[in-house]
Amino acid sequence: MGKIKPHLIETIVFGIIILILSLGAYSRNQLWNNPKDLWADCVKKSPNKSRPYVNLGFSYFGSGEYDKAVPLLERAIQLDPNNASAYFTYGIILQKTGEIDQAIHVLKKSLEIDPTFNMPLYTLGVIYLGKGEYNHAIEALTRFVKVLPYFPETHHLLGIAYATQKQFDKAIAEFEWEIRINPYHVLSHVNAGQIYWYEFQNREKAIYHLKVALMLDSFLPNRSGIQRLVRLIEGLS
What we know:
The protein has helices at 6-33, 35-45, 50-62, 66-79, 84-96, 100-113, 119-131, 134-147, 154-164, 168-181, 186-198, 203-216, 223-235.
């Protein structure tokens, strides 16, 4: 067998180097394409840092794997008791799993650690609304929209809270604001339309919002009842 020429050896070695680098890049790209794998790798490489545990826990939360997320978040809090994001994510999971009182406690802890971290306010507002604690819901959501006035759904939730307290002027203002953010928000149209009619006897605005809701959603709950209400209002002179 003849000797391999020097330039051919260089070509082979260069090709091997390129192959190794390519495989390394492919491996890293595979990690980046899967957040769980990426953050699991970060946890493995930095086992004493809190943030990778939070991010891996959040990835499991996103896929509904709460049982896998919880120990990661508990470990994150153990490593850094002042990690507001860890408490926030943990609080959301507690809410989802029905541990409401504990969720409130954990979310308040997140706010206590970082008063500028606003997302816990939104979640607390949702929880309080579900519990029927409307004044607390209004307080939390009002604080939230002062910082993030265009966050989806918040004004609608505030409108519901105000309506339950019979503060209909404020309720209408919130539903209208939600509609400005998202003109296709069906329930804001429905709620606004009903309040405009039943509370203010504003025929024009009531018909407008109710008709928009019917147009936007063919499967609207109580669609037939809303249609009857529109016909009733239109029939009145």
